[in-house]
Specification:
The protein is of the alpha/beta class. It has helices spanning 9-12, 51-63, 78-93, 108-121, 135-141, 145-161, 178-190, 207-224, 242-251, 273-282, 293-304, 325-336, 340-343, 369-378, 385-396, 404-413; strands spanning 31-34, 68-70, 99-105, 125-132, 166-171, 195-200, 230-235, 256-259, 321-322, 360-361. The chain is 44% helix and 12% strand. Helix 3 runs parallel beside helix 4 (108-121) and helix 12 packs across helix 14 (369-378). It starts with 8 loop residues before the first helix and ends with a helix.
């Protein structure tokens, strides 16, 4: 057995992440709700995907083990309703495991289309009805608490009487006052809501805020004997803390976290679904096959017209690409040992193969002979000293990583 097989990994990688860890408090049964086709499409720079693209994305979500997908606001337009119905029918016709969620305001007219969707498609549709709960929002909208409560009760009643499970979503929860939240949560539960969604709508929260809010809400539920009510965390990324907060929310008691592919969403976006899954996989908390994670991100980027930054984790073109001689040499030596496990980790904290990618060695101004030899052999070209030196000389005189055609120019010149 190779010394670097996963059973021996502790001998090769000392994991400081596990030193004095407070405990593996994230349970294995946590859930994920994908908001790409709803909140993601509220980004001002994306295009609304064609229904064929939405169907492909839904299938990829299902393949990744994502539990629910928010497919939009069916009450907003005929096109939105038709797309939602087609996606519901796709779940039924293909026996997909993923469940369907729709969003709407706390207005009966937004909830009734969800009931119609459920009846026409023949599957449950999870209602997520939202209302602003923070004082700053109430001031702008000229709402008082009684009015918010009235809207909330009416909308929840419509969903429950229509036979659907209802989640009560308080927008801007992370800037809302505790007494107001307590009243709204109690009303929602009394009217039949089975889930509360805590929202960091403007990306205000830090991990301390996540902990305080979830613990506050849990204490209310415990005091009311409402153990059946589950908690969602929906976070935005305005402070750059969306991913961190999502994982922290699971540690401190959320049952489900929301995210979007590539973090697309309003303003700077949401917690990144693929990075939530990646991190939980690396923590040993997910058994799902995530080799389609790259395809999922690419499908969304293509469908909405999104440019992925080259240095974006996992998905960016440079995520597993190196032209540095020392790094490349180490990867090549590992591969020469016939040890793919070692090669995928020697210079990468994220194993590329686990997520549908591979290590990529290029040739540039910081490269060595190892890079050139590897590049040539990977393309079935037998290296020799003169050719390697010629390619390296071209690279050292360049201010960028050589493109494949640039390397081939040197190869062909020496042929």
């Amino acid at each position: 057995m190779s010394a670097s097989t996963p059973s021996k990994k502790d001998e090769l990688i000392h994991d400081w992440n596990e030193v004095a860890r407070k405990g593996r408090v994230i349970p294995h049964h946590v859930e994920f709700l994908d908001e790409t086709l709803r909140d993601g499409l509220q980004n001002p720079s994306v295009t609304d995907p064609k229904i064929e693209d939405k169907i492909r994305i839904l299938h990829l979500m299902d393949s990744l083990g994502i539990h629910e997908a928010d497919i939009g606001l069916p009450g907003s337009s005929k096109r939105a309703f038709d797309d939602c119905l087609r996606l519901c029918q796709e779940v039924v016709n293909n026996k997909l495991a993923i469940k369907i969620t729709c969003a709407g305001r706390t207005v009966p007219g937004d909830i009734t289309p969800m009931i119609e969707l459920s009846q026409r498609a023949g599957i449950p549709v999870h209602v997520y009805c939202f209302v602003g709960s923070s004082p700053i929002r109430a001031l702008a909208e000229e709402w008082d608490l009684d009015r918010i409560k009235k809207y909330s009760a009416e909308a929840i009643d419509v969903g429950v009487k229509g036979g659907l499970e209802v989640a009560y979503v308080t927008e801007d929860t992370t800037r809302s006052q505790p007494p107001v939240l307590a009243q709204l949560f109690k009303l929602a539960i009394d009217h039949g809501a089975s889930r509360l969604c805590l929202c960091d709508t403007v990306g205000h929260s830090t991990p301390d805020g996540v902990r305080n809010l979830i613990q506050f809400t849990r204490s209310l539920l415990d005091g009311w004997g409402a153990d059946h009510v589950e908690l969602d965390w929906h976070g935005h990324n305005d402070r750059g803390l969306g991913l961190t907060n999502a994982i922290y929310a699971l540690e401190v008691g959320a049952d489900r976290v929301h995210g979007t592919a590539l973090g697309i969403g309003e303003r700077v976006g949401n917690a990144q679904m693929e990075l939530i899954l990646l991190n939980l996989k690396l923590l040993g908390l997910l058994d799902h096959d995530l080799t389609h994670l790259m395809e999922y991100c690419q499908a969304v980027a293509e469908a909405v017209g999104w440019q992925v930054p080259i240095n974006y984790p996992l998905v960016g073109s440079d995520a597993f690409r190196t032209a540095t001689g020392v790094h490349a040499a180490a990867i090549i030596k590992a591969e020469n040992k016939g040890d793919a496990w070692l090669a995928d980790r020697i210079y990468s904290g994220v194993p590329a193969g686990m997520f549908g990618r591979r290590q990529d060695i290029c040739i540039g101004f910081m490269s060595g002979a190892s890079n050139v030899n590897y590049w040539l052999k990977a393309r079935g070209i037998e290296p020799n000293d003169a050719l390697v030196k010629a390619i390296l000389a071209r690279a050292k005189d360049s201010d960028h990583i050589l493109t494949d055609p640039e390397v081939m120019d040197v190869v062909n010149a020496g042929a």
